[in-house]
Design brief:
Glutamyl-tRNA Synthetase, domain 3, three-stranded antiparallel sheet, binds glutamic acid, Rossmann fold, 2 domains, alpha/beta
Length: about 325
């Protein structure tokens, strides 16, 4: 297997609007943007609100405003998943016609209590295949699952060679949920293909999803992007930064400390003088500080310098100067 290079020309940042932009998502935004821009490529934004019950009113607008205040510039319109269900249905029907998906009548507790249940990645139960050969008598269709078959291998530009046995480690995954919404795994594959994304730079919390996405790409005859999974920012206890941990929203009025911290987190060693915060300084002065930091980052970005680890503590970087 040949390691793909990230020689592509189109990257993206795809936040879920579940809250304001925090340090962990800033890292993913910055890494994906700098990797695309340093190659002269396009960088797109996609609002991943396909899981509508998890989306929070106002979060999408707040994320976009913070990105803009931090000096990010994306190409074209923001793609919004909640407007794309007709497209997801079209692709879903393609899979249905090909016999790759089947209806499932199992509830979560039936799956948890199944006698032959095993756990896969993250300790999540692997679907035992109860409805794989047709709905058992008395069951009604609730969700639709993808029939997975293969072991998938890929080479991540940062995390190296990856291998996952889909039936053993994940099982048949839901593509159309019981609440009628399409699952992230389907949406992300369709969207990356439709947006022409050819390199995906995102947090390593998603690395276990990548084999499922590659499997779907192959079934659908879509190209597989190159992947680089960045270290996930964790707190002292090893928990991913989130609203529940120390992840304060990025301060959109003084973005330089957070941008500097994100660059340092990504192993880029920006010079200390670029950390001028101009806390009480005039707006123009703050803009200049941010522009200087961006200029340095674009000129010096080197993916190889990013630590090749899945998680990395972020507390040092969150402390105010
Ligand atoms: N929407 C996902 C998140 O915010 C990212 C998905 C992706 O980059 O593929 O965690």
């Amino acid at each position: 297997m040949i390691a793909p290079t990230l020689a592509g020309a189109c990257g993206r940042f795809a936040p879920s609007p579940t809250g304001p932009l925090h340090f962990g998502s800033l890292v993913a935004a910055l890494g994906s943007c700098l990797e695309a821009r340093s190659r002269g490529g396009r960088w797109l934004l996609r609002m991943e609100d396909v899981d509508q019950p998890r989306s929070r009113t106002g979060a999408a607008a707040s994320i976009l405003a913070t990105l803009e205040a931090c000096g990010f510039e994306w190409d074209g319109e923001v793609m919004v998943q909640s407007t794309r269900s007709a497209r997801y249905r079209e692709v879903f029907e393609q899979l249905l016609v090909a016999g790759e998906v089947y209806s499932c009548g199992c509830t979560r507790s039936e799956i948890d209590d199944a006698p032959n249940i095993t756990s896969g990645i993250d300790g999540a139960p692997v679907y035992p295949g109860t409805c794989r050969n047709g709905l058992p008598p008395g069951k009604v269709a609730r969700a639709w699952r993808l029939r997975v078959a293969d072991t998938i291998e890929f080479v991540d530009a940062l995390q190296g060679k990856q291998r996952q046995n889909l039936p053993r480690d994940v099982g048949d995954c839901v593509l159309l949920r019981a609440d009628g919404l399409f699952a992230y795994q389907l949406a992300v594959v369709v969207d990356d293909a439709d947006q022409g994304v050819d390199h995906v730079v995102r947090g390593a919390d998603l690395i276990d999803s990548t084999p499922r996405q590659i499997y779907l790409q192959r079934l659908l005859g879509l190209p597989t992007p190159a992947y680089a999974h960045l270290p996930v920012a964790v707190d002292a206890a090893g928990n991913k930064l989130s609203k529940q941990t120390r992840a304060a929203p990025v301060d959109a009025t003084h973005p330089v400390p957070a941008l500097f911290a994100a660059l340092s987190f990504l192993g880029q060693q920006p010079p200390a003088e670029l950390r001028r915060t101009h806390g009480g300084g005039a707006l123009a002065e703050r803009r200049r500080a941010s522009a200087d930091l961006w200029a340095w980052a674009l000129a010096h970005w080197n993916l190889e310098k990013v630590p090749h680890v899945l998680t990395q503590p972020a507390l040092d970087y969150l402390l105010e100067p």
